[in-house]
């Protein structure tokens, strides 16, 4: 009978031991929180008022040994710096380990524990993203401003995100797949199936990040190679059994544990399931209904949401007629349901690109609506409804400090008159008229639509 050998207890080839030593150090540095900044964040969490965002950041541990604060630079570049550093350490460690340890024939116990660490690290990471998809938070429905922005004014990644946001049911399905795969990884007998699902699913996420110029390609690639490592445990046996139809025995290595160690293992597993599945799921559900992180929470002026055409525009008492090329005159204005106003003009917009998943607490930092978009300037505003005054602040980080001070008057339900000082401290007077625009996405794309 031609059966596969038990790969964890047999003698390993020399190159297999060298590869394992490198992978052991590399994965350990990537998966186990050894970065002090992770613990600094841990102790700043308000545990009395724990938010789903806090648990998400804990689930998405990424070592920052050299790169520091991701907010100061590119997420992708920052990760690359740390990856190179970790790879250098792993190579040096492999050389030293190989020189010091020439007697060991294999490393079954280290292999067992590395697989356990990666199973849980991968499960926590994939579930962290799964719940913000299952409750459609990551890619929300496009804002009114986004629906009234030219297709060519969006970056590739913003188009991808909005395409997902218009089908929340599909987004929830993707999240359910991630959660299911993560749960399978928490149990040794189903870990291979979970790793296979993640390999296909996250492999597609990795390719999407490359194709659509997203910023999380290195992080998703780490999840892919972690899934590959876990899958490799049974890959040869599965191939022999299914493809070659050979008799195949299961891996029979089992780590002996005392009663106390088994109790500790069950307590640790129960904590992971409770904290990263049950509690996180509940918190994310609550956040979906009360605190979605992509759009601001502050409500806008009552009954103002919609798109407005600019019927009259004056600057320093000089009237400017409509012009498709004028960089000063506004073309249209959008009032969102929340406290955001966007203005479309021919003025150049330096695109503010968000290249990784962040969950800012303050409304001014919630830039999903403006990130990856040109053609419009986005302003967060505060309104004094008694004095009818508006203070607008540009949300784009490239225009930090740009403000407009306006007063508003509503002579009727569809007209708003704005006057005051623009970003250049010039006097402006603008009359805008609300348009009763129909959106096929909202009305149903497969039904008869009368425009």
Short account of what is shown:
With 451 residues, the chain is an alpha+beta fold.
Provide a count of the helices.
12
Span between termini: 73 Å
**How would you spell out the order of helices and strands?**
HHHHHHHHHHHEEEEEEEEEH
* Residue windows where pLDDT falls under 50 for at least 5 positions: 1-8
Arithmetic mean pLDDT? 89
Model description:
With 451 residues, this protein is of the alpha+beta class. The protein has twelve helices and nine strands. Strands 1-3-4-5-6-7-8-9 form an eight-stranded antiparallel β-barrel. The radius of gyration is 27 Å and the shape is elongated. 31% of the residues are buried.
Layout of strands and helices, then pairs:
Elements: H1 14-31, H2 36-42, H3 52-59, H4 75-100, H5 108-134, H6 144-147, H7 156-165, H8 168-185, H9 191-211, H10 217-243, H11 259-290, E1 306-315, E2 318-319, E3 330-335, E4 340-345, E5 376-384, E6 389-394, E7 403-412, E8 415-421, E9 427-435, H12 440-443
Antiparallel strand pairs: 1-2, 1-3, 1-9, 3-4, 4-5, 5-6, 6-7, 7-8, 8-9
Helix pairs in contact: 1-4, 1-5, 3-5, 3-11, 5-8, 5-10, 5-11, 8-9, 9-10
């Amino acid at each position: 009978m031609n059966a596969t050998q038990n790969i964890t207890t047999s003698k390993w080839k020399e190159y297999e031991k060298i590869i394992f030593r490198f992978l052991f150090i590399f994965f350990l540095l990537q998966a186990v929180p050894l970065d002090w900044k992770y613990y600094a964040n841990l102790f700043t969490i308000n545990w009395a008022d724990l938010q789903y965002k806090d648990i998400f950041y804990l689930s998405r541990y990424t070592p920052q040994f050299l790169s520091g604060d991701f907010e100061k630079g590119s997420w992708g570049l920052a990760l690359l710096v740390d990856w190179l550093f970790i790879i250098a350490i792993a190579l040096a460690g492999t050389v030293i380990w190989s020189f010091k340890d020439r007697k060991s024939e294999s490393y079954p116990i280290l292999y067992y524990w590395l697989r356990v660490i990666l199973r849980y690290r991968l499960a926590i990471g994939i579930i962290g993203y799964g719940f913000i998809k299952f409750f459609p938070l990551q890619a929300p429905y496009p804002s009114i401003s986004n629906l009234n922005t030219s297709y060519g004014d969006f970056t590739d990644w913003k188009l991808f995100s909005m395409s997902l946001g218009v089908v929340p049911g599909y987004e929830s399905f993707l999240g359910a797949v991630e959660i299911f795969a993560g749960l399978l990884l928490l149990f040794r007998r189903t870990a291979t199936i979970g790793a296979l699902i993640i390999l296909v699913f996250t492999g597609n996420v990795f390719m999407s990040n490359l194709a659509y110029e997203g910023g999380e390609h290195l992080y998703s690639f780490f999840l892919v190679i972690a899934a590959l490592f876990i899958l490799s445990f049974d890959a040869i046996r599965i191939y022999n059994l299914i493809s070659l139809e050979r008799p195949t025995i299961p891996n029979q290595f089992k780590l002996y544990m005392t009663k106390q160690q088994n109790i500790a293992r069950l307590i640790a597993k129960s904590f992971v399931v409770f904290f990263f599945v049950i509690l996180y799921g509940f918190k994310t559900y609550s956040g979906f209904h009360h605190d979605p992180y992509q759009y601001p929470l502050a409500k806008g002026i009552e009954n103002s949401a919609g798109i407005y055409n600019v019927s009259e525009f004056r600057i320093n008492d000089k009237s400017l007629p409509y012009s498709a090329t004028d960089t000063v005159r506004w073309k249209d204005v959008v009032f969102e349901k929340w406290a955001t106003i966007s203005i479309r003009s021919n003025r150049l917009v330096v695109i503010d690109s968000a290249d990784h998943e962040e969950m800012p607490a303050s409304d001014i930092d919630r830039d999903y609506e403006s990130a990856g978009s040109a053609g419009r300037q986005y302003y967060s505003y505060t309104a004094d409804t008694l004095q009818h005054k508006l203070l607008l602040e540009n949300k784009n980080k490239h225009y930090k400090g740009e403000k407009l001070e306006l007063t508003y008057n509503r002579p009727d339900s569809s007209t708003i008159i704005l006057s005051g000082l623009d970003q250049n401290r010039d006097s402006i007077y603008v009359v805008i008229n609300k348009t009763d625009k129909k959106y096929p996405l909202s009305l149903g794309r497969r039904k008869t639509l009368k425009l």
